[in-house]
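Q: What residues go here?
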């Protein structure tokens, strides 16, 4: 664990400091005491979900493990990218969500597609806590305290008909592309980042291509190979990240973070 994260309800103010307790069997306590071999007085990197980061100090190793927290540093800035993905196998969705949190995306949406496997839409991952667990893992690795907002839609149509899709709109398509995502580097960076669309394992139907084009999306390729869904997502995110350097260093606004809008929270 690169960061020991606490839920807001797990800490309280005591004598001008934040105080928290962990049960001996809590994975975070086990990591501190057994893996990192921390003892009383030992310090560690800590944060509160949705809030700041900083340092923690172990004040007692007896059950429960007691810590104080000094959290004065903001979390890393968000990558100004919104990701829409056709439903894939649950294990792939879990990986996508983990990497979305790890890379600091603003949001991730999942939708049914014309050519996608219909049974994948029945996953409970987004409601049963599985999505949160995956994003928690990614956030901890990145030393982040926030998760992307996550939503699901019955179809591409519903996703496109929802709220405005800010930034430059790109749909990955290696079958009927209108250009190459790699050549985006020759264009000026978009002022509000990207909204990316990635199809299901079988790609887009012609109907969906028309819908995407009508909604302002440009279909771009990232090569001739048919990539796994999570691989295509990560590749597109890296390319988008390379185009958004100006957004790193944007101050953290805690009022803008609303995890309650994410299923499974």
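A:
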């Amino acid at each position: 664990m690169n960061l020991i994260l606490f839920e807001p309800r797990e800490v309280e103010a005591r004598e001008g400091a934040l105080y928290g307790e962990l049960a001996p069997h809590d994975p975070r306590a086990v990591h501190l005491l057994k893996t990192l071999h921390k003892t009383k007085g030992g310090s560690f990197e800590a944060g509160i979900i949705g809030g700041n980061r900083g340092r923690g100090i172990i004040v007692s190793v007896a059950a429960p493990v007691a810590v104080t927290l000094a959290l004065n540093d903001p979390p890393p800035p968000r990558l100004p990218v919104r990701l829409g993905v056709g439903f894939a196998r649950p294990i792939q969705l879990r990986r996508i969500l983990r990497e979305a949190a790890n890379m600091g995306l603003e949001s991730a949406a999942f939708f049914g597609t014309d050519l996608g496997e219909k049974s994948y839409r029945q996953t409970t991952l987004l409601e049963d806590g599985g999505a949160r667990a995956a994003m928690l893992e990614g956030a901890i690795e990145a030393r982040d305290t926030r998760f992307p907002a996550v939503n699901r839609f019955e179809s591409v149509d519903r996703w496109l008909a929802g709220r405005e899709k800010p930034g430059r709109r790109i749909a990955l398509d290696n079958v009927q592309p209108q250009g190459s995502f790699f050549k985006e580097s020759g264009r000026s960076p978009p002022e509000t980042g990207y909204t990316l669309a990635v199809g299901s394992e079988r790609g887009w139907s012609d109907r969906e291509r028309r819908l995407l084009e009508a909604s302002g999306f440009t279909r771009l390729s990232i090569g001739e190979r048919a990539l796994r869904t999570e691989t295509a997502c990560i590749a597109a995110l890296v390319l988008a990240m390379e185009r958004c350097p100006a957004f790193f260093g944007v101050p953290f606004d805690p009022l803008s973070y609303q995890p309650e809008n994410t299923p499974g929270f």
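A: Context that may help when evaluating the design: The helical segments are 27-35, 90-103, 130-141, 156-161, 206-214, 229-242. The chain has two domains: 4-73, 79-261.
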